[in-house]
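ok new one. same drill as before - structure tokens go in, u give me an amino acid for every spot. 300 of them this time. try not to just spam alanines like last time pls lmao
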């Protein structure tokens, strides 16, 4: 692995998809970041980004490096929690999350953190609604929108992508306006966050096959229909494939929300740092796996 400071710069630019977007978090100016990226590419002997007026898009080599670097970042965070008996985390921590994150991301992340901290008990509260931290339903929550009220600490974890998907053996639609298969999606009057309302993106009035659960929607798509799916969930359903990527590709974000008073808890802060690093790494890994499978189908 390259010098970690250079990899940290690379990860920030990859996640922000631009030099100007990455600059504030790194406290560097865009010109300096551009020179750092150019030197890294020169040392590796390969282009990591396709540069354009629209920003910095990862090349195939850049995607592979991002996946490795994100895992290394998560491993460093976990190593910080396993530095000795007086540093290991213990006790019970409950994390609330929407069921997409709870089903496809958090199990792997929590298993890694717990393995590094054997005295820690982790609970995942999967709910198709916003977790109520004020009632102490959980110690912290992953959300898809930052809350606008309450005495809370909010940190952005990572962006994630969603695509239109259907069974790989079904005919590919010519365009969004020519969709013939029944739509799979959320029950409209049970959408608990505006970021989950995808009907407008599809120009659709209704959803013939609907559920308030992302996991149920994925199971529906295995049998029939077409719908918007998290790219990080597609490796769990290899019979599905993305379609019309150039017409529809959505980006959303995960946020970590905590009680403001918990900022004084070193234990919860250390856990939050490991959780965020782990979620970023797992989203990166699964999205890279999704892209690799898509290229294999296209080349095959």
């Amino acid at each position: 692995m390259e010098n970690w400071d250079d990899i940290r710069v690379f990860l920030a630019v990859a996640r922000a998809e631009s030099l100007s977007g990455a600059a504030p978090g790194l406290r560097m100016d865009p010109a300096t970041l551009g020179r750092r990226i150019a030197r890294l590419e020169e040392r590796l002997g390969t282009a990591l980004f396709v540069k354009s007026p629209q920003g910095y898009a990862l090349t195939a080599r850049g995607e592979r490096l991002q996946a490795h670097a994100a895992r290394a970042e998560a491993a460093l965070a976990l190593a910080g929690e396993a530095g000795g008996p007086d540093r290991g985390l213990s006790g019970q921590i409950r994390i609330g999350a929407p069921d997409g994150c709870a089903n496809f991301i958090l199990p792997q992340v929590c298993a890694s953190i717990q393995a590094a901290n054997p005295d820690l008990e982790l609970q995942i509260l999967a709910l198709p609604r916003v977790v109520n931290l004020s009632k102490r339903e959980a110690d912290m929550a992953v959300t898809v929108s930052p809350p606008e009220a309450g005495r809370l600490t909010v940190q952005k974890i990572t962006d994630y992508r969603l695509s239109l998907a259907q069974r790989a053996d079904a005919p590919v639609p010519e365009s969004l306006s020519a969709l013939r298969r029944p739509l799979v999606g959320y029950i409209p009057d049970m959408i608990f966050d505006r970021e989950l309302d995808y009907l407008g993106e599809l120009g659709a009035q209704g959803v013939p096959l609907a559920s308030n659960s992302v996991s149920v929607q994925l199971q529906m798509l295995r049998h029939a229909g077409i719908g918007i799916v998290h790219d990080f969930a597609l490796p769990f359903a290899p019979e599905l494939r993305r379609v019309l990527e150039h017409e529809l590709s959505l980006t959303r974000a995960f946020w970590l929300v905590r009680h403001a008073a918990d900022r004084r808890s070193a234990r919860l802060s250390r856990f939050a740092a490991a959780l965020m690093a782990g979620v970023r790494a797992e989203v990166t890994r699964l999205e890279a796996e999704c892209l690799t499978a898509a290229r294999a189908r296209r080349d095959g």
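The radius of gyration is 20 Å. and btw The first helix runs from residue 4 to 16.
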